[in-house]
Amino acid sequence: MRLTHPDGQLVHLGYCTNVHPAEDLAGILAQLDTYAVPVREHLDTDVLSLGLWLAAEVAAELATDPSRRRRLLRELDARGLEVVTLNGFPYRSFQAPVVKHAVYQPDWTSKQRLDYTLDLAWILADLLPDDAARGSVSTLPLGWREPWDGDRQASAARSLEALAGGLAEIARQTGRVVRVGLEPEPGCVVETTRDAERHLSDMDTDWLGICLDLAHLACAWEEPASALARLERAGLPVVKVQVSAALGADDPASSDETLRRYAEPRFLHQTRGPDGHGTDDLDDALDVRLPGPWRVHYHVPLHAAPAPPLHATLPVLRDALRELLGGPAARCDHFEVETYTWGVLPPELRPDTPGQLAAGIAAELAFTRDELQALGLVPAGRPALEVP
Question: How many other CB atoms are found less than 10 A from the CB of residue 308?
Fold first, then answer.
């Protein structure tokens, strides 16, 4: 969806397709018909933005074949879909039966990560709508915290320098600007905005910045105004925002049975208390009886509150959106709803059919659209697109 901020900036709102498992072009096109088009129809909008996730193999194919990129653009346009941002955090197999720590590999010490991210940037330069000011790609925040040392930090810094150079070359050749945002996440080298200030302030911020995931911000117990002020002082732009909410438990001891319904084998659910201490998975927090309150890295549907006594971190989400868009100038123009956990929710909350999943995604987008409109944004149309 497209909205206009009172300052005149075009703001893009979409959903991230990493909730779907397709990892080849045929599967991606099929998921557009199965999910994205019904989502757009539920919302009754003429254009729906997607935060497209492309696994490494299909990204490499698209990056080396302009005809495939043109085909993808035509297929998107025919369905009333557009792409201004890509999710480059998971490398492959993000909906495998077990993901856990594998999502952090390869990290930014690896040439594979650099090549993958530049492939995505080349693809996005061709997919961008003509009137989009820029594109964005989100990526992992250097890597998992262990093992990490000075040599790995230096290697990652060299990779980010090469990434900035590659993005500049893409802009030179295509005339399109694509920026990459590193996404602070619990358990990673960069978990908080303080970590971003410490580890990322030396990178080339003409091309590189931060992807701010609002569930991760909540799990770090960061107050949005302070976190954004810290990033601004460090000169780190927010190039993309993932609109998400974490799972909260004020009194975990009395919520043990309900919380165990969210412990599952696919994803890590890092659990943190307000002092920053915690565990790397929800099972561990339950087993060691980590003192509460807790915030759990579990992206819960935005429009449907968890059953009491649990809750979603919607106050953090709303505060962050207000800080980002409630002032005289928009501080970011790419917003992506990223609830990738629909398939691992407790069984009674899990969609049983593609239609139910599409309806749930549409409800999340409607929730977010309403939040943005309450901040003064208004719907915007899309000019006609000429696809080669």
Answer: 8
Task: Mark 37-76 as b/e (b = at least 16 C-beta within 10 Å).
Answer: bbbbebbebebbbbbbbbbbebbebbbeeeebbeebbebb
Alpha-carbon span 2 to 11, nearest angstrom: 6
Domain ranges of the chain: 2-247+313-379
Instruction: For the chain, give the percent of residues with pLDDT over 70.
Output: 98
DSSP string, 162-193: HHHHHHHHHHHHHS--EEEEE---TTBS--SH
- pLDDT-flagged residues of the chain (< 70): 383-388
CATH number of the domain at 2-247+313-379, please? 3.20.20.150
Contact 349, 304 (CB under 8 A): yes
- Rounded to whole angstroms, what are the CA distances from 83 to 55, 190, 361? 16, 27, 17
Task: Give 209-258 pLDDT, tens digit per residue.
Answer: 999 999 999 999 999 999 999 999 999 999 999 999 999 999 999 999 99
